[in-house]
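cron nightly-structures :: item 1 of 1
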Amino acid sequence: MYANCPPKPETAQALFTQVPLVCDREGLIGRELFAIDGVKLPSNASKELSGSDPTFLTPYVSEPSYFPQRSESRRSSMKLERLGAERRAELSRLFRLTFSTSEGEEEGRLIGDLVDKLAAVIDDRDVIAVGAIEDGVLIGALFLTRLRFNDDYLVYMLAPVAVSTAHQRRGVGQALIEFGLLGLKALGAAVAVTYGDPAYYRRVGFEPLSENVIRAPMELSMPEGWLGQSLSDFSIEARRDRPHCVEAFLDSAYW
């Protein structure tokens, strides 16, 4: 009954992103080559597990449960990857310096302290950190934190985001956000929200989000900056309950 209803482009993109990542996780990446729609990828995946074998595809497409470890950027010298708590000092410094330069020292200290708290509890489920690494140096990063509702509706907040001053206006921030959103789709998240400049975040698919649909965890000082996007083929489901954010965000100064 769905034969004449092709998937949305973003759905296909998410699927074709997951296939090589699953192959890598399962130890199928080797020194042979196979092609997906003409794109050659290194793999020793056996023929028995290729194509549309449902025993291979179904567990990962219907119930994705992991966030990709890393991805090569279109910029050959830059890599995008998940970060762990061992990067805590680097993350705090990056956000503090970047926000101090753009927003003033007080804002830099505020966001630096927030990031220090977030980085201390990175667990790749409730708190995920993604970074852009160039020549071994952290040049940009963002956090994805889960908003918890009364049920299992899976929503993440993308914030804060920072790119070092010397590397801005080179597409680093957009690459980070796109990688983060693809990772959330792989986790099975339904919605991503953020709180920031609408003009900037529209470029990566975010739209104004009414609090009649999804409420912010705390009262907003700038309601027009509350933004969201669906990560599936379905519209964002309206929720009555106010979600709970991670502890680091429980401060009205961030809202």
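cron nightly-structures :: done
The radius of gyration is 19 Å.
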